[in-house]
Amino acid sequence: xxxxxxxxxxxxxxxxxxxxxxxxxxxxxxxxxxxxxxxxxxxxxxxxxxxxxxxxxxxxxxxxxxxxxxxxxxxxxxxxxxxxxxxxxxxxxxxxxxxxxxxxxxxxxxxxxxxxxxxxxxxxxxxxxxxxxxxxxxxxxxxxxxxxxxxxxxxxxxxxxxxxxxxxxxxxxxxxxxxxxxxxxxxxxxxxxxxxxxxxxxxxxxxxxxxxxxxxxxxxxxxxxxxxxxxxxxxxxxxxxxxxxxxxxxxxxxxxxxxxxxxxxxxxxxxxxxxxxxxxxxxxxxxxxxxxxxxxxxxxxxxxxxxxxxxxxxxxxxxxxxxxxxxxxxxxxxxxxxxxxxxxxxxxxxxxxxxxxxxxxxxxxxxxxxxxxxxxxxxxxxxxxxxxxxxxxxxxxxxxxxxxxxxxxxxxxxxxxxxxxxxxxxxxxxxxxxxxxxxxxxxxxxxxxxxxxxxxxxxxxxxxxxxxxxxxxxxxxxxxxxxxxxxxxxxxxxxxxxxxxxxxxxxxxxxxxxxxxxxxxxxxxxxxxxxxxxxxxxxxxxxxxxxxxxxxxxxxxxxxxxxxxxxxxxxxxxxxxxxxxxxxxxxxxxxxxxxxxxxxxxxxxxxxxxxxxxxxxxxxxxxxxxxxxxxxxxxxxxxxxxxxxxxxxxxxxxxxxxxxxxxxxxxxxxxxxxxxxxxxxxxxxxxxxxxxxxxxxxxxxxxxxxxxxxxxxxxxxxxxxxxxxxxxxxxxxxxxxxxxxxxxxx
Length: 746
Prior knowledge:
The chain is α+β, with helices and mostly antiparallel strands.
């Protein structure tokens, strides 16, 4: 481990400087230290690789990164240096993971550049922001962990090299402006592979058979066949026998089962549970968890460990015995499933178990309660459930069995605190084996097998973790990247690849499968772990990867440009010359182009609508400019006036544009409709409190009203074209709904 203690002349003052990365974290810690330290925040990373790849990494020199102060961070760096000059002691306390170690190192390097800084610089970490944890950490300062820091640097450099080289060849061979990444591309591939499975799926018919029977005591039971026949003849056979013969209770079996609690939360399982229980997206979950952590309510939220400290287990034990009784306590140690569990070394848990509700907002309170329940339940006794399985059949036993299962909780155990996991008891009437049953009705419900579901964000996180792709700190950013790039769109909770996403993934699979495969990506994560553990050198890892990778990228430069994706269906013909069509990728996604292009420029949308170029639908009565209907990246839109030619060195002034609503056929848009669409954004009036304009506009996620950075969605029956100032004020006055998945109301 590299020594970073800096010995020199002691500063004139007695000020001790503690630097963290978050202002909220700084505020919380400062309260605990009673003025013993001046606490300041770096507000995240202070340095990063420059955007230009030419000067970012010295590959020949040994993959040496060249860092620059991040844009907008100059003032913060100057303030930290000025404070450090006056300090007699400097302590760096960013988060306890690779990213935090890297932030600490970058701050250290910038402080060292200031020759007026003479104080020694040390590093401390704590897994929770409590007075006890912070005080304990300050009593045990250490050096910056060079191995941990270099593991983060290796990841950053790897991602830059892979991203730039793969993106560069995609720009050349597919389309300018597209991108690829070391972790985002495998995630996209998984989504695309699922979409192909869905398309290739051939549904099969099957039948669910149900017998509604009555017992001697006139109690009714709904029995379901244990088999689901795929043949109508078998259904008719069972139906015929069921209606002709007498029924009886063939068997009754009671079993006592145990339900054990789940392990405390890791980053992945928290995101999954928050999605299913609270309808939070992974990104939203991490934002809310960050606030809880910075307020000192929970431990660090980026972890793949399920371990609880002895102090935590003791705290839970005392609380469970006091609140529920000794019989509800059963302490457990959970084995972390992740192959190389790292980041922080404890599960996500509350810092004070006696507090069942904490948080400033409803979202924070809900997530805190979820974490509290899971952690406390993990150290409680098994629930005991009595399962009763009743089997019915005809007396000749010539058809498959029909069953119903009842359940009754005998001992709640951990379900006492996690009521949502309990489910409902299913009560069955008192009945005996051999008792006759009367068939009241028989149903044969025709169904079809269904394709696999698309991944939800939480489902994809689970899949990435299972395949060893990514780490706790990267899951939410992977989701954000593939959505922001336009490679994936969310339909409800499901992730569906866009045309562009499918094309990019297909190109990478055909030409760089080795580098976006599960095995390669997971293997690289393992090697980064080896760097963090001091078992593998930074330079060795990068050189062993980059030399063959660069060779392959150069070989692919010989590929022809992938302009044509496939031959279009014969039913589509060129609107200009009648020739066959081919599928191509444009900025708006796939479209159909004449196969004689460039001799003929006839084109259709992927749905077969004609794309007419330079033909206005009419003239705007106010401006006198031509109005065009166009197809763009986010769908059809109207444009007022022509696009001016690009002039080098001058900013291009684009004409006014507006989206055409999804329910409107672009070929039916009139001048009157177009002027209506072009009327947004609309300025409705002024807010009396702030003096800011209140506007109505269409956005990527639908129509909305806005005022001074405050936004609210416009929902039917209101619409963006007719909403009044008063209606907009009413919307803006409503409490803002959280982002993420919203539960459907029944």
